[in-house]
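User: Hey, quick favor. My workstation is busy. Could you predict this chain's structure for me?
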Amino acid sequence: WTGDRDFIEEHYDRIAAIANYLLRPEFLHEDTGMLMASRDIWERNAEVGILPGFDIAHQTFGILGLRDAAYIAKAFSRMEDAERWTDAGKKMRQSFLDHPMHSMIENNRIIKRRLLDGSIQTELSIANIGKDFQKQFVPDGMPLASKGVKTWEPDISECFAIALGVIDPRSEIAKNTIEAMDALWSQAWEDGGYGRYNILSEPDSPGPWPLATMYMAAACLEAGDVERGQRAISWLIDKAGAGG
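Assistant: No problem, here it is.
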């Protein structure tokens, strides 16, 4: 960002360690080159029913991170690193878009989570939550604390790839994904704003999030959806920024 080569060179080993960490066998799926875990970007994990698989946010930021790490490596003539990270990022993106079993696209829109067997995880269940964990992290009265399966689609992280250029923001896939996100606007509250995900799977108090709304504003503007983008920006100014 700054163009300070000395700063980058001083910290190159740390940058390399971070990039290589993604490629450890416990995270990198050999066939697809995608990143696997039992966790999502919002810090929900196996304790609340997330099954081993591929999360949309992990793939998005993995693709971007490896691309940028390769750019840095090339700028400092670390060609072995540059080639390894470029190849890994390209394979991850190709699988994201087109893998016949594990792509992050379904029904012509981006999905939240694909499991290792190729199926799509669409819900969480209180039955999968340990009692001690539930008592500490999913208090009574929170949506996820009630009995039964909880739908967790859609999820605002599905728009990250649109906002950050991993997919063509003017594509039908982007358009369909953004339209699906409308379900997250003003879900169980008045005055607008996007929630992070379907509040039925919320372990905390449900409500609109400025960060989620910011990403949707960015995705909408990249996609040319000015009306939705302006709605999100107006909410950020008038509601999230009120009194600030």
